[in-house]
Specification:
By secondary structure, the protein is an alpha+beta fold. It has 4 helices and 7 strands, in the order αβαβααβββββ.
């Protein structure tokens, strides 16, 4: 069995990432954090998050192998994933999330090349590099409201470890407040 998931940028980065053009020059972490302040803050409580894999493509590989990898990628779908957003986390808004993405993890280094936030609209692009020649671009656009959000994320990842050298994926993540934390 292929170990392509080892080279994939961690799925957590898919929660906040997207594309709308922009420069390849990284924005400063301070600029990103200031821009994140322009987003509506969420209401604390219990949220349900649903993830839909919209598109998945690995160009240049045999159809049987592509079908097998698509099936494994289908496991990224998440229906009914519940989480509690505390009062402190809600007050912080999206600042901590933006900061976490800029810091990277597991040897992966990421920088926002675009991060535009205005009220409920978010448009961002994250460029990442990692071990083994991993090079990824993650783009996100969507809306955040006090009790729900919808984000469409597009990821393009290149790595010598990926059959065909490149993988492209589009996901949509919807979250909605369903009550108070238990």
């Amino acid at each position: 069995m292929m170990r392509w998931q080892w080279v994939m940028i961690p799925a957590g980065y898919l929660v906040l990432a997207a594309c709308s053009g922009g420069s390849d020059e990284p924005k400063s972490p301070d600029d990103v954090l200031m821009e994140a302040e322009n987003l509506v803050k969420p209401v604390p409580g219990l949220y349900r998050s649903d993830t839909e894999l919209v598109d998945f493509d690995i160009p240049g590989i045999p159809p049987a192998q592509a079908a097998q990898i698509r099936e494994m990628a289908g496991g990224l779908r998440g229906s009914g994933n519940n989480y509690c957003l505390t009062e402190a986390e809600a007050e912080e808004g999206f600042r901590n999330m933006a900061k976490r993405f800029s810091e990277g993890e597991q040897g992966i280094s990421c920088n926002f090349t675009e991060f535009e936030a205005d009220g409920s609209d978010l448009d961002a692009t994250l460029k990442c590099t990692g071990p083994g020649g991993v090079d990824a671009s993650i783009a996100m656009d969507g809306t955040v409201e006090p009790e729900k959000s919808t984000m469409r994320m597009q990821m393009s990842q290149k790595s010598p470890a990926i059959p065909g050298g490149e993988m492209r994926m589009t996901m949509e993540v919807k979250s909605e407040r369903i009550g108070d934390c238990g």
